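Notes from the 1:1 (GR / supervisor)

We went over the backlog. Supervisor wanted to see one worked example end to end before approving the batch request, so GR pasted a single chain during the call. The sequence is below; no edits were made to it. Supervisor asked that the structure be written out right there so they could see what the output format looks like.
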Amino acid sequence: MRQQIKAVVLGSALLRLFACSSGSTTSGASTDGGTSLVTDAAMDSGASVWDGDVSPQAAETKKDLVFRTVGDKSLAGDLWLPDRTTPVPAVIQIHGGGFSAGTKDDPAEVLWSEHLISQGFAAFSVNYRLYSDFSDGEIPFPSAPMDIKCSIMWLRKNALNFRVDPNHIFVLGGSAGGYMTNFLGTTGDLPEFTPTDCADGAKESNRLQGVVTYFGPSDFNQLFNDPARVGLSNLANGEKKFIGLTGQTPCAPGSAEASGICKTASATTYIDASDPPFYVTHSDDDPVVPVTQGRYMSEQLKAGKVDVTYHEVTGMKHGWHANWKDVHGVGMAIRDEVVAWLKARSK
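Structure output shown during the call:
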């Protein structure tokens, strides 16, 4: 059974770096997961599982679609739609930026949107509240991931209006966006992380049919105690501020933090066999989020009987999920593998 842990505060301040080197790979998989979320009646009304009969040459973009409003802050996304004759699967894109920067309009998100529609997917690039959107004393966790949950629920409610298949909604993100995808994937429909104030009164499920995570944090107890992070005070201080911790040894083993916020905000805490399939990729040379985060997430998903593909590359730095022109072709190879993985789970 999934642990029902009361939400407390956390976050992660990550840098977006773009660099590359040589690449090699390893991978693994375990058992399948996923559920149907739309009734037969809804499917009969026009929704159908994607069959690939789309024309990627023509597309439209619907800008600034509001899926949640908090106070005077409207959270919105840009929906990229391929020219299609039947409902298509959708990929919700979540930008990085350490929870203090980044938008749905980042070049990486635009690049991914253009590629996804060329492959017959709808792409929904979304904003969420950043650290600067909160008052002093407020912490973005769990509000920021719940913003994105509203994007899932809103898109599912309005899916047939856009000829999106509500039974096939995925997420993709890197770095801070990778943390979000991890967390969203393992906390689908948990009451303590399900918003009740989404636009259009959306109450639909926020469970996903697949998760793509590039170099995202997965477990904060392990992250803060990873030898690879020791001495990186500039990064640790940023994360501590976002999480709301003040000590010199955050998430210290046996501490109240370790069993409290550091556990509550970790995606690994909520893993169970009902979780959707995961595609996790990380580099062994990531100087910001150590590769142990990707490895540990993959190991825990396998132990939880979740379908997971783990692909580790060599020599890439941080922030390479939209770097498709590195001289060794690693970024493009993983991109193509991700798209094939999404297509296989969209039928």
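Supervisor's comment: The chain is about 30% helix and 20% strand.
Batch request approved.
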